TrEMBL record, chain A:
CDD domains: TM_PBP2 (cd06261)
Transmembrane segments: 17-37, 46-68, 88-108, 149-174, 194-216
One annotated Gene Ontology cellular component of this protein: plasma membrane
Designated name of the protein: Molybdenum transport system permease
Organism: Zoogloea dura
Gene name linked to the record: modB
Keywords attached to this entry: Cell inner membrane, Cell membrane, Membrane, Molybdenum, Transmembrane, Transmembrane helix, Transport
All copies of domain ABC transmembrane type-1, residue ranges: 11-217
GO MF: molybdate ion transmembrane transporter activity
Automatic annotation (TrEMBL), chain B:
Annotated Pfam families: SBP_bac_11 (PF13531)
Organism for this UniProt entry: Zoogloea dura
Assembly notes: The complex is composed of two ATP-binding proteins (ModC), two transmembrane proteins (ModB) and a solute-binding protein (ModA).
Name of this protein: Molybdate ABC transporter substrate-binding protein
GO biological process: molybdate ion transport
Phylogenetic placement of the source organism: Bacteria, Pseudomonadati, Pseudomonadota, Betaproteobacteria, Rhodocyclales
Gene for this chain: modA
Amino acid sequence: MVLTPDDWMAVRLTLELASLVTVLLLLVGTPIAWWLATTRSRFRNVVGAIVALPIVLPPTVLGFYLLILMGPNGPVGQITHWLGLGRLPFTFAGLVIASVFYSLPFVVQPIQNAFMSMGARPLEVAATLRASPWDSFVHVALPLARPGFITAAVLGFAHTVGEFGVVLMIGGNIPGKTQVLSVQIYNHVEAIEYAQAHGLAAGLVVFSFLVLLALYSVGGARNTLGAGR
Amino acid sequence: MQPVFRRLALFAVLAGAALTARAEEVSVAVAANFTAPMQKIAAEFEKSTGHKAQLIFGSTGKFYAQIKSGAPFQLLLAADDETPARLVKEGDAVAGSQFTYAIGKLVLWSPKAGYVDDKGEVLKSGKFEHLAIANPKLAPYGLAATETLKALGLADGLQSKIVMGESITQAQQFVTSGSAELGFIAFSQIHKDGKLIEGSHWLVPARYYSPIRQDLVVLSKGKGSAAAEALAGFLRSRGAAEIIKSYGYDL
């Protein structure tokens, strides 16, 4: 095998990052998705647009602003410093926070769609049966939106694994801390170490394909026209 | 051919090109650290020869990959001397066309005035959180930075404070944004319009690192192109040398 210890470290780091980010995204994304699906607030479209921004913005733009915001002269940097947390660029924590922003729409949108396609009816029925709002959310909305959650988790995880531009901007390429898989592949290509680049890149292609295949196998049958009716 | 004849031949080619007044375009891949001087040189070149130079800036490693995949570049101004030599060896560049167009100088820089002293003692103080360098595997200036730290006996002590950019441009960005207090970058990067930009720096003595030779080579796609030959010749002229030096390179 052509992979070096640094390569394996990058693989492990990437999996750790993506797992942690996915958990955080489900925790942060669910309330946002619920609010977007149910609110009549006039800020709904504004919040929806902000959440969707990372889909259209080049990752370098996001990374550039995060670098400035989290740096010692930026507001976020000053707050983290004041709280005694140090500074976020070049740290694993910084990568986690940046990745949550970066992958947020890929988690919020599937969950939001799932909530919305459920319609108001199940919750109205639950209300007439005297379920509290929390009760009906946990026992009615969440189970009905399950396919949306599965899609959200898979996409959030895969998107974080594939993240490159943001990490490049704020990571600092530190082995074991911020040197993730995509950056390591880039390093190998730039250094003309094509054998190692192939080893990692081919692995990533196979991994991504399997993830998407699994996703479509789970959700695909039900989503075909004419099926399930 | 005798050198005199060779010069005469070159002159004849140039004169012929001028007489027929056929302005050609030459496509040039330029190492990112040489962006500012090259823009100036290209403007002078266009004025004096009538040829046009289309400049593409990027990293040498990426250029190598693109050239191997048939990129239409005719001339490569690399950030090192290994890549041009490798391209000649692999038959993608014209043998004998390689020469050093600039020698890079390394500086330790901070945007804060008075932060970096003129002997680099600030490195020994260790009173900083992050020292930015370019990835030594990818950028000759990054390698020079690690060689300097080794020569100073600080490589192990500062290991945990080093952050790496994928290029010296990114290393500078880390420092400019304040995320790293100081960094090793190219002397040319703190020049603007022939003047030094704000901040403080230590020009690292050349004995601490192996010379950063930046070589040029005519690529196979530029073989026989009058404009490519002319630009390669122009880069050896006294006028070009003055511009190159004014941006903090040696020759």
